[in-house]
Write a structure and sequence with these properties.
single chain, mainly alpha, Four Helix Bundle (Hemerythrin (Met), subunit A), 2 domains, two-stranded antiparallel ribbon, 2 strands, 72% helix, disordered N terminus
C-alpha cells in the first residue's frame, strides 16, 4: 500500500534558490540603505534606464550614479531567484501546494517592488513612497524566511505545539514588532537621510519620533525576553529561533541608542535597517514554530509514551 507523499524531500536546486532569494532580498535592503545614506537616491534620474538615453550611469553622475545603479543591479538576480523558486515549486505543487502558493506571492511582491521603485524615482524620492518601498522589502524578507521554514517540514495538517497562553503572547509580540518597524519607517522619513539633499521631508520632528519609536522597541525587547525564558523553561519548539531573535533585538536596541546619541551616523542607520528586516524574519519563523505537523506530533507523543513506559 502506497503512503501519500509528505513532500518532505526537497531538491537541492530548490533549496539553493530559496536561500538565494532570501539573501538577495536582505542584500537589496542594505544596498537600498546605502543609496539613501550616501545621498545617491537620484544618482540615476530615470527608470528603467539610468538617465535618458543610457541604461548605465554616465561619468558625469559620479559615485552617486554608480551606487544607485548597483542597487538596481541586485534586482536582476533577485528576480531570477524568485522565478526559479516558482518554477521548481510548480514541479512539486501536488505534494507541496503551500510552497508553490508562497513562491507565487513572493514573485508578485518582487514585481510590485520593482514598480514601486520606479515611482520612487519618478516622484523624486517622496518620503511616503520610500517608506513604503522599505516596508514591502521587509514583508518579502519575512515571506522568503517563511518559505525556508516550511521547506524543512512535511506538508499536511498542523497542530498547536505550545501552550495557548504562549501562542497569544507571541501574537501580541508580533503586533509590537510591526508597530516598531512602522514607527521606525516614519522616523526615518523625518530624519536627515533622505537620499538627496533637495528632497523635502515629512516635516515631523524627527527627535520626537525617535523617542516614540523607542517605546515599542523596548517593549519588543522585554516581550522577547519573556518568551525566551518561557520557551526555555518548558523546552518549547520556538526556543532556538527565539534565542536568535533575542540576540538580534538586543543588538538592534544597542545600535538604536548609539545612533540616537551620535547624530544618526549613516553606517549605524544602515545596520539598524538591515537588523530590522532580520528580526522580522526571525520572528516569522518563531510564529511558524508555534505549530507542528500532525504526523510529527503523533511521533513525539509515541516516543513520550515509550519513555514513560520504560
Amino acid at each position: 500500500m502506497n503512503r501519500p507523499s509528505t513532500g518532505l524531500h526537497i531538491p537541492t536546486s530548490l533549496r539553493i534558490f530559496a536561500w538565494l532569494s532570501f539573501i538577495f532580498n536582505v542584500v537589496i535592503i542594505a544596498t537600498g540603505g546605502a543609496v539613501r545614506l550616501t545621498g545617491s537616491g537620484l544618482g540615476c534620474s530615470d527608470w528603467p534606464v539610468c538617465v535618458p538615453g543610457s541604461l548605465v550611469p554616465t561619468p558625469e553622475l559620479g559615485i552617486h550614479g554608480v551606487i544607485e545603479f548597483a542597487n538596481r543591479t541586485i534586482s536582476g538576480p533577485l528576480l531570477i531567484a524568485a522565478l526559479a523558486v516558482v518554477l521548481l515549486s510548480w514541479r512539486r505543487r501536488s505534494a507541496r501546494r503551500d510552497l508553490f502558493v508562497l513562491s507565487l506571492v513572493i514573485l508578485a511582491l518582487v514585481v510590485v517592488q520593482a514598480l514601486v521603485g520606479a515611482f520612487v524615482v519618478w516622484q523624486e524620492l517622496a518620503a511616503a513612497l520610500v517608506g513604503f518601498h522599505y516596508t514591502v522589502s521587509v514583508v518579502i524578507v519575512c515571506l522568503t524566511a517563511a518559505f525556508l521554514a516550511r521547506m524543512g517540514e512535511p506538508a499536511g495538517a498542523r497542530e498547536r505545539a505550545v501552550p495557548k497562553g504562549f501562542a497569544i503572547l507571541t501574537h501580541v509580540t508580533s503586533l509590537v514588532l510591526a508597530i516598531t518597524v512602522i514607527v521606525g519607517v516614519f522616523t526615518t522619513g523625518s530624519g536627515p537621510h533622505s537620499g538627496d539633499e533637495d528632497v523635502v521631508r515629512t516635516g515631523v520632528d524627527a527627535s520626537l519620533l525617535a523617542h516614540v519609536h523607542a517605546w515599542p522597541g523596548y517593549a519588543l525587547a522585554a516581550l522577547t525576553v519573556v518568551l525566551t525564558i518561557w520557551a526555555g523553561l518548558k523546552r518549547l519548539r520556538p526556543l532556538p529561533w527565539l534565542l536568535a531573535l533575542l540576540a538580534i533585538v538586543l543588538v538592534q536596541v544597542a545600535v538604536g541608542l548609539y545612533q540616537a546619541r551620535n547624530g544618526l551616523p549613516p553606517l549605524a542607520v544602515g545596520v539598524h535597517m538591515v537588523l530590522a528586516s532580520l528580526s522580522a524574519a526571525a520572528f516569522t519563523v518563531v510564529v511558524l514554530r508555534l505549530k507542528r505537523p500532525v504526523a510529527q506530533g503523533a511521533a513525539e507523543a509515541s516516543r513520550a509514551e515509550a519513555v514513560s513506559a520504560a
